[in-house]
Amino acid sequence: MTGPGGLGPEMGFAFPPGSNEDTPMFVISVAAQLSGLHAQTLRSYDRLGLVSPGRTAAGGRRYSLRDIALLREVQRLSQEEGVNLAGIKRIIDLENQVDALQAKVTELTEEVAAAYAAAESAAAQIHASYRRDLVPLRQETALVVWKPNRKR
C-alpha cells in the first residue's frame, strides 16, 4: 500500500501490523522533518485547524502519513500557488466535503443496487410460483337453459 505523498513501501516505509496511512504514529519533530516544515509551523496549523493530528493520552501530537501529505499540500498551496491560510482551510474543508459526499453516493448506489437485486429476486420467485399454482383448464362450452317456475 502506498502512503500519501509518496511515503510507503516504495520509499522504504512499511506500515506496522494493524496500521495504515491514517494511523497516528509520528511525533511532531519527525512529522516536521518529513513534511519539510518547522515544528512551530505544525503547531500553528493545528491551532488553525488546517491539520489536526491525533493525540496521545498525555496530549502529545501524533501525525499520520495522511497528515504529513496534507502538510505538504498546505505548504505547496501556500508557497507555489500563493493561497493564504484561510483559503487553504476552505480548500481542505471543501475537499473533505467532496470526499464525504462521494462516499455517501457510493454507499447509496450500493444500497440501490442491493434493493434492485432483492426486488428482481422477489419478482423472479413470484413468477416462478405462478407455474406451480396454475392448473390447466379444459375449454368446454355448455348451454344451460333455465326455466323458472311460474307461480300463479
Number of helices: 4
Would you tell me which CATH topology of the largest domain applies? Answer: Multidrug-efflux Transporter Regulator, Chain: A, Domain 2
Topology, number of strands: 2
Topology order in helix (H) and strand (E) letters: HHEEHH
Gyration radius (Cα, Å) is 34 Å
Instruction: Kindly report the spatial arrangement of strands forming the biggest sheet.
Output: 1-2
Would you state the CATH class of the largest domain?
Answer: Mainly Alpha
Helix content range: 40-55%
What form results from the Cα inertia axes?
Answer: rod-shaped
Instruction: Specify the structural class.
Output: mainly alpha
Distance between the ends:
102 Å
